[in-house]
Structure formats: C-alpha cells, structure tokens
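Protein of interest.
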Amino acid sequence: MKDIVNDNQWVLSLVFVFTCLLLRWLSVRFVKRVVKDEDNLHRRWTNTITNITSLVIIIGLVIIWLSELRFVALSIAAFAVALVVGTREQIQCFLGAVYIASSRAFSIGDWIKVEHHYGEVVRSDWLTTTLLEVDIEGMSYAYTGRSLVIPNNKFSTGVIQNLNFMRRYVAHSFSIVREADAISVRDARLYLEDLVREYCSPFKEVADRYSSLIEKRLGIALSVSDLNVRIATNETARNVFIVTIFCPTQEATRIEEEITEDFLDYWYSITHKLDAFYGPDLQLDDVPEVVVSESHIARHVRPKKS
C-alpha cells in the first residue's frame, strides 16, 4: 500500500483535491437550499465550509507527500544553517537596526558617539548608519569632512552616547599654562574670571535657559552654565589655569583663542613691569608677597572677527 501511494502521488493528489472541491461545492449548494437567508447565516456557513475544505486539502497533501517532504525539510534545514552562517553579520546588523528603532537611542541629525567615533547621523538603514564626523576630541566642534559608515551591530553590542545637546551649547574646557613667574596667581585668577565673565555675558541668558532645559530633560542638576576657573600645577611646576565655560558650540574655539590672547597680554604686561622695576636678575625670595594688590578689570571684549 505504501509503495502504491509513493508511486502515484500526483494522481492521488489530483483525485483528493478534486474530491474535496466537489464535496465543498455540494455542501455549499445544500446550505443555500436548506438554510434561510436570515442575518447572512448561509454566508457564514459557506465561509466555514470553505475554510474547513482548505484545511483538509492541506493536511491531505502533506500526508500524501510526507516521504518527499522529509528530504525537502532536511535540505531546507541545511540551507538555513548555511544561510545563517554566511549572513551572520548581516543578521546582526538587522537586529541592531531593530534595536535602534525600538530603543530610540538617536534619530537623524543627532550627534552621537559610537566606540571612539563622533559624528552627526545623516542616514540609517537596515544594515548601516552613516555619520558625518565631528571633531569633539579636538574641541573644535567642526565637521572634519569625513563620513563614517558604521555597521548596525555595533549599536547592539556597545554603548551609544547621544551628544545632541552639544550641537548648540557645550561645556568647553581649556587650559592656559604659564611659567612660575613672581606674580600674584590669585590676582591673575581674578583677572581671568573677569575676562571670562565679560566674554560670556552676551549669551549668558540664553545659555542659562538652555542649561535649564537640559537639566529638566535629564532630571539632574548640572550647573554647566556657571563659569569655572581653577588653578593647578603640572609635572614641570608650571602654573595651569583651567577654564570651563558654557558657550555656543560654534563660538567655543574663537572665545578660547581671544581669552587666551588677552590673558597672555595681561601676564606679559605684569612680568615686564616687574623686570623694569626690579631688574631681570630678580630672585623669587626678593619679591614682595603680593606684587599686584588688586584685580585688574578685564578690558572690553574685542569685536567679533568677520
């Protein structure tokens, strides 16, 4: 019996399908004659008969072709394994795209950090995400002109930092290193604070509002809009003035350059006055404790360079 079925699968399939369709047709005609058309009852019966007939046909064909389907299943399984092994990276990238869409880690136009890469997201598809590289580590906050194509699997296996708040304003830090000259470091710091305060005054109100907006979104107090000037020394015993300002991102480099230039002018003017008064061979032990007795008022901010 089994051999007869295996040798006549096509014939049996056709006969089985024809028989099922014939029974369905007869059943539908019977329902239309017997069941009254009340609330479309005959349509519901017809739909039920059609669905049952389709299910019976599928089950019957599977039983008839079961011996052949075993080989097909093994072939499909082997093909699926080979396909998964061969396209493992692509599958991981696809899952990474699903992760990005579900977590909403970033969107087009955001600044992000992936591993050691910084950039603005310009395009994202199922396999890759394209960034326009931004110079964050160099603190120029400008586009480098390079584009980065990052596989999406990097986002599901690593940490993503969203730096979008840095697009408008940034907490910019820089250092000014000076020799350990015989001048009052405290007065130099006060002068530098006055200088920074005057350069930041044009956008101070907007910076405070933007800082409050960031704090509200993050739910923590950052106080990034407060200027900060610290004094430290390096390994060669030089004075290091560390300045942190919250300023427009595109203006950070210009403000740093102009503050540095004005502070160096102040530093050189004080040291030259000391040389003129005491002579170039002055020893540190011979200098009074406080050479500059009061803070110098920062001169007016220079006009913005065109």
Observations:
- DSSP finds nine helices and eight strands in the chain.
- The longest helix spans residues 252-278.
- Confidence is low (pLDDT under 50) at residues 284-301.
- The CA atoms of residues 171 and 181 lie 30 Å apart.
